[in-house]
Specification:
Elements: E1 2-6, H1 10-19, E2 30-31, E3 42-43, H2 46-50, E4 55-60, H3 66-77, E5 81-84, H4 87-103, E6 108-109, H5 120-127, E7 133-139, H6 142-153, H7 158-167, H8 176-179, H9 182-196, E8 198-201, E9 205-206, H10 214-222, E10 225-235, E11 241-251, E12 263-270, E13 274-281, H11 285-298, E14 312-315, E15 322-329, E16 332-335, E17 339-340, H12 341-353, E18 358-363
Parallel strand pairs: 1-2, 1-4, 2-3, 4-5, 5-6, 8-14, 9-11, 11-18
Antiparallel strand pairs: 7-10, 7-12, 10-11, 12-13, 15-16, 15-17, 15-18
Length: 365
Amino acid sequence: MKVAVLGFGTVGRGVYEMLQSCRTLNCDCVLERPGVFNEPFIVNDINTILNDKSIEAVAECIGGTTIAHDFAVKCLSAGKHFVTSNKALISAYGLELRDLAAKNGVSLLFSAACGGTMPVLHNMALARRSDTLFRSGGILNGTCNFMLTKMQDEDSSFDDALDQARKLGYAEADPSADLSGLDTLRKVILLSAVGFDAFPEGDLLCEGIESTDADAIKELKKRNLVLRLIGSCGRNEDGSLYAFVQPVAFSSSAAEANVKMNTNMAFWEGENCGRVTISGQGAGRYPTAANVLRDLTELPECRKSMLSAACAAESVKNDGCSFRYLVIENGAVSITEKVSVNAMFAEAAQKRKEGAKFFFAAMEE
């Protein structure tokens, strides 16, 4: 099968290089902006790919939503399989693109959009065929995990940890999506859509690590706790959907506490399989490209979509999830009784509106 790659950045270059040694796939066409690269396989017009009937599949590695969405629509409409590592694209337009792929009889796969090298979406899509899944989540952002490790294990400041992440290529020039938790939230949306046939919408609560400073880390260490940014989604007891991102304080002996640096750890729970956990590199050229290649190699086997026909938008109900929280407000430390996620996020928003310096972390029990 002949494949075209969209984008020749970090992931796109990795996909192209790995395709050169793939026995079942070949690639001699990469789309990039004019004037950036001079390699003979680079093309600058998407129509070159759309009009080439020998190209059966496209691997999108551009990122973002505007251009990527336009190209996705055009490729699927042209009857080409579409594989992407773009979490922003699928979390925003997943259902639209699923329907377009089905209409044109081609595949839409996105294993690399969550977890880098971890085949979490791939395996959840397989698991749901024979089991009922009801909970998923984990440590889903390598930048935040790297920074928290540096701050807790080496007493780095927030800014120093971010600088180190940038130098190592873990953080983008604009790291706001990582630090705010938005990157993790997008992955939570994908976990829910693949695992529970529910595309979360509405009150998607998201707290990143931007309020984590040296005082918060000092207080956590004093209590023998380790902070991790956790994405969570699943079904409440009444069957309603929850989906949110928040810092969570774990005991130092917990598995999550021992996931270090830019490593990710994701899990899902099913009625029959119980809890399944996968850990691995959460980002990077070759780890992410490996997941893109995994999807591409499945195309000849006619795997159509990671989003089932039953997957639909569904409003979330986060008030069914409750935790005790460690709170630091203007230097004063307290631990709450169990309160809902909704209540904690509302209190944090109100306190910050009033000008308070406010940090919170759920206490894992």
